[in-house]
Write a structure and sequence with these properties.
heterodimer, A: 372 residues, mainly alpha, 3-stranded antiparallel β-sheet, B: 164 residues, 2 helices, 93% helix, 0% strand, rod-shaped
């Protein structure tokens, strides 16, 4: 409940901020903008707002300008997107809306479009530690520390299996690890499961940790890390690489020369084409599933929270009622999101394991021999 | 549509961060934990097996003990029975012996008595004979006080001896 109040406070700062810009006008809450702003990345980490002043943690900006080379500076230089620094600024609209762009004086362009301004806007190489990147690095460090702490506990008791029954937090982590190993990895992969256990466990813990961190509305959490397509695409890429680089001969044979009537393979390779597409759609589905689920969860919670502010114009009684409803609904959705955080991590791990298991197929005749 | 286009900067950081997390955890984290848990599981299984075996062993020992105990009980009963028999035998034989002994003693006593009686009778006879001789002497002395009677007697005796 307290976290929710903080969340309310967090959003309260926005209409006020908007008010600052359009002094006399009635503050208009653009829900779409607000939600998109919160679920997408940012160059500063907004914490809260005091009165008309937003409080955010400045993050390092690392950009390589087309001509000016590398620049490293604090995002505070932009003054929340209002200022320009060394030719870089945050685009307020256009294709690169919300991203850093660079103004470059362009003679060549100037010659042709003489009525345009004498600069062109380009997107520089942008390796800034954005809100998501910062949250990602932070959670990675915490996750590594937590797991190494547990591993260290076991390491101290190596060779003494009678002493290695942990209590409390380590026992909890062990329970999760062994649950994933025994219920997901072992049945999905089969006999070679040991080789892939570290990767799948890393994926599981990485996703669930970032999912849960994203549900915390206050500072160290709140970033939409696993709801960002860059994050999920890298995870899917890892699964893709592992599935295909450890695939057996039979796996590749089933892709390029499957057991189907010959006319499906020559002269037009229909089945191989379908199979090949399947190779790419599997990780693609992984990427989209995680991204969409987490993004949707964040969007729903934000939308429900916005209801409190949208109903202000309907009068005090209506506003109170709707606010109460919105709060109850948001709490409910938050609980559902806790479940989703676990389920999505579980599903990603399970499907990765299934895909790895499928790439470990053995030739049919050896299978028959085994059954005989 | 910016939500659907991965940002290269974030991609770069994610690759580095996830790669590092993966490397560290796959090398120093999960394998140790999983290995230890499996070792512990094996240890527990082994211990259970050992406990089961020990239990069976104990059961065997208990059965053996009971068997020994029952054997001992039987033996004791047998020994007691035998002892009883021996006692009865001893008592009986003692009784018999006592009987025999008593008979012998009685016999001896009877013989002694018989002997003593014979001796006594003999003694009495002697005494009676002596007494009779004494009396006869006295009678004779009295009868033979006159000469005629003496002659008569001598004559008669001689006659008698001649006749014989």
């Amino acid at each position: 409940m307290t976290s929710f109040l903080i969340l309310l406070f967090f959003f309260l700062s926005f209409p006020l901020f908007a008010n600052e810009e359009s002094h006399e006008e009635k503050p208009e809450l653009n829900v779409r903008e607000l939600i998109l702003d919160h679920v997408s990345d940012g160059y500063g980490w907004h914490v809260t707002g005091f009165g008309h002043k937003p409080v955010s943690i400045p993050l390092p900006i690392i950009v390589k300008g087309r001509e000016s080379g590398w620049h490293v500076f604090s995002s505070a230089r932009f003054h929340h997107g209002h200022a320009e620094y060394k030719g870089f600024y945050i685009a307020q609209d256009g294709t690169y809306k919300g991203k850093i762009v660079e103004k470059i004086a362009s003679q060549a362009r100037n010659d042709r479009d003489f009525n345009e301004a004498d600069y062109e806007v380009v997107r520089p190489w942008d390796f800034s530690i954005t809100k998501n990147a910062a949250s990602l690095l932070l959670s990675s460090i915490v996750l590594v520390c937590l797991i190494l702490y547990c591993a260290n506990w076991y390491k101290k008791r190596q060779g003494k299996p009678e002493a290695a029954s942990p209590k409390g937090f380590i026992a909890f982590v062990e329970m999760i690890i062994m649950n994933v190993v025994n219920d997901v990895i072992k049945p999905c992969i089969g006999k070679n499961y040991k080789r892939y256990t570290p990767y799948l466990l890393t994926v599981f813990f990485f996703i669930i940790f970032n999912n849960l961190l994203g549900l915390i509305p206050v500072f160290p959490g709140g970033a939409n890390v696993t709801g960002n397509i860059a994050i999920t695409s890298v995870l899917a890429l890892f699964t893709f690489v592992i599935v295909n680089s450890f695939g057996t001969k039979e796996y590749w044979k089933e892709i390029f020369w499957p057991d189907v009537p010959a006319w499906l393979k020559v002269p037009i390779p229909i089945m191989p084409a379908i199979e090949l597409v399947g190779v790419f759609t599997k990780p693609f589905a992984l990427m989209i599933r995680l991204f969409a689920n987490i993004l949707a969860g964040h969007a729903i919670v934000l939308g429900l929270t916005c209801m409190v502010f949208l109903t202000v114009s309907l009068g005090a009684a209506m506003n109170t009622g709707m606010s109460l409803l919105a709060v109850i609904m948001a709490i409910f959705i938050d609980c559902v999101e806790l479940l989703v955080a676990y389920i999505q991590a579980y599903v990603f791990t399970m499907l990765s394991a299934v895909f790895i298991g499928l790439s470990q197929v053995e030739a049919h005749h050896t299978k028959k021999e085994q059954t005989i | 549509m910016s939500l659907l286009t991965p940002d290269p900067g974030l991609l770069f950081w994610m690759l580095i961060a996830f790669g590092a997390v993966f490397f560290v955890l796959a090398k120093f984290g999960f394998p140790i934990i999983v290995k230890m848990v499996e070792e512990r599981k094996a240890y527990i299984d082994q211990s259970l097996e050992a406990a089961k075996e020990a239990n069976e062993h104990l059961k065997g020992i208990r059965e053996e003990g009971e068997q020994i105990l029952s054997e001992v009980r039987d033996e004791r009963a047998q020994i007691l029975k035998e002892a009883n028999e021996i006692r009865t035998k001893i008592v009986n034989s003692a009784k018999e012996q006592a009987h025999v002994e008593a008979g012998k003693i009685m016999d001896d006593a009877l013989k002694n008595i018989e002997k003593e009686k014979a001796l006594a009778v003999h003694d009495i006879r002697n005494q009676v004979a002596a007494l009779a001789i004494d009396i006869a002497e006295k009678i004779l002395r009295k009868n033979l006080e006159n000469k005629s009677a003496q002659q008569e007697l001598v004559d008669r005796l001689i006659a008698e001896s001649q006749l014989n």
